[in-house]
Amino acid sequence: MTIAIVGVGETDYAWKDPRSPAALALDAVQRALADAGLTGADVDGIVTESYTLATKAPADFVAAHLGMRDRNFSAHMGIAGSGTVGAPALARMAIESGQASVVVSYYAINLSERGAGGAYAVHAGDKAKAAFEMPFGYYGQPVYFAAAAARYRHLYGLEPEQLGAVALAARAHAQRTPNALRREPLSMDDFLANPVVADPLRKLDCCLVNDGGVAFVMTSLERARDLPHPPAVVAGVGFGSKPIAQSGYFSQSSDLLTTPAAISGPKAYRDAGLAPADVDIAEIYDCFTISMLLQLEDLGFAEKGSGAAFIASGATGPGGSLPVNTHGGLLSQSYLVGANHVVEAVRQLRGDRGEAQVDDVEVALVAGLGAPEHATLLLTKDR
Amino acid sequence: MGLPHFEPPRDDDVAAPFWEGIDSEVVMLPRCSHCGRWQWYPDEAGADCPGATLVWEEVVPRGVIHTATRVERAFLPGGQADVPYVVAFVELDGVDGVRLVANVPDDVDVAIGDRVHASFVDFGDRKQLVFVPDHAHGAGARSAHDAEVDKGELLVDHVDITS
Lengths: 383, 163
Known about the structure:
By secondary structure, chain A is of the alpha/beta class. Chain A has 15 helices and 11 strands. In chain A, a hairpin with a 2-residue loop joins β5 (196-198) and β6 (201-202). In chain A, α1 (21-36) packs across α3 and α7 (160-174) packs across α12. Chain A is globular. Chain B is mainly β. Chain B has helices spanning 16-23, 144-149, and strands at residues 27-32, 54-59, 62-71, 85-92, 100-104, 115-123, 126-133.
C-alpha cells in the first residue's frame, strides 16, 4: 500500500516563543490537521523523533490534547533529522498493516527556553564527551563539523567561497519564503567578512537557533485522494546507520566525510524505483554548510570531493539545475531539524510556493541527518 | 599557548586510567582482553566480546594528524576557553581504529598529515595532552617561519603554560 502526506503545519518561527516544545508541537499538529481537512478524532497513530521529543513533546501529551480516541500506533523514530524525515517509514508500516489509518508526525524545539542550556547542551551530559573530548575543547556542533570540513579541505580543496555558496543559496531561497527567519540579502563579501568560529566554519556556516513546531499528516493514497490537497506520495523511504554510537560519532566514525546518507539514500532510491537523475529538488539537512555538501555527495548528486564545485556553480540556488533547500533550510528558514524540509517538499509538489515555486516538480528528495543515523525520503506527485 | 579549560571528570571510573596515565606522562588506551581490539571510547558496558574485560595498555604516543580545527569561539559550558586553541584528531602508529582527540599548540603551523608526538603540559594541578609536530622539534626541520614564531617553549616537552 502506498501512503501520502496530506497535511502540513508550521507554527510561527521565532526566538523566545514562551511556549514549551510540547505546546508548540500541539499547535503545529492542529494546523497540519486543519490543512488536511481532518480532526484529532481522525488520528490513530503518532510517529515522532526520539532523541529529544520522547521527553520534550511525548506522544501521550499530544494525543491527549488532540482528542485522539485510541492511539493504535505510537512510536519514536531515530535521532534528530533521521527521526523527522524517516517517520514515513514507520507510518507506512502501520498503515499498510492496518494498525493505523491516519498518522501524524511532528517536531518542536525551544532553544530559548530558560534553563535548557541552549543549542550545545544536548551533548553536555555525554560521559565519553566529558571524559575524552571536552577537556580538549572538542565540543559544540560547529567544532565537530569544522573538523570534518578541515579534512575535506585537505583532501579535495575547499575555498571559503564554496562554503559561502551554500549559505548564499539558502539565503536566496529564504528571501522567497515568507516565514523564513533570515531574509535580508547576503552577499559573498558579507559572508567572507563574517567571523570564523572554528576554522574553516564561520558563524554563517551554522544553522539558526530558534523556537517552533512542525507537523505533517499521513494516510493511505486512496484516502488521500479524497482530501483537499493533492497528495504528496511517499514513493520511497530509507533509514540507515553507521555502526557507531552517537557518543563517538563526531570523532571516531570510520570516514568523517561520508555521512549515513550513503546508506539510507540507496535504500530510498531502490524503494521508489528512482535515481538521483530523477530528482527535481532536494531538501537536505543543513545544520552546517558542510553537512549539506557531504550529504549532497552521498546521495549521488556529485562525486565525493566535487560537491563544493557543483554548489559553487549555482546549481543548488534558485533557477539552478537542482534547487536545494528551497525554503532556506536550517541555515536561513528555521532550525526545525528537517521536519520543515518535509513540509517544504510537500508544498513544492502541491505547487503552493509562490515566488519560490520551482517549475515542474515531480520528484522531491528529503534528507535528514541525526549523527550516526540518516533517513532519505522520496516524495512524488500522484502520477 | 591557548588551551580550553574543562576539567576531566575525576569521578568517572571508566575514564580514570586514561587521565591517570596523562598525569604520569603516558598515554594509556583500553583494548579487549579476548580479541585485542582497541575499544575507544570505553564505556560502562566494558569489552564487547562476551566474558572479556578491557585491559589498559601504554601506547607509543606518536602518530599523524587526521584533522584539526582552530577554535576561535568558546562553546564549552561556562565559556572558559582561552581562544584561539587548536583541537586535533591524532591517529597513533599501530593503534588501529582510534583517533585521539587532543590539543596542538596554536602558535605552530600544523597540517593534516603531519607527524606528531605527545607533550604533557603542566596545566593547573594536572597535565594536558598536547601533540607537537615533529617538524617543530629541532631547528634543522623547521622552516624560517617556524623559527620566527618559535618561542623556545616547543623545543621541550614540558611547558608550564600557567606561569
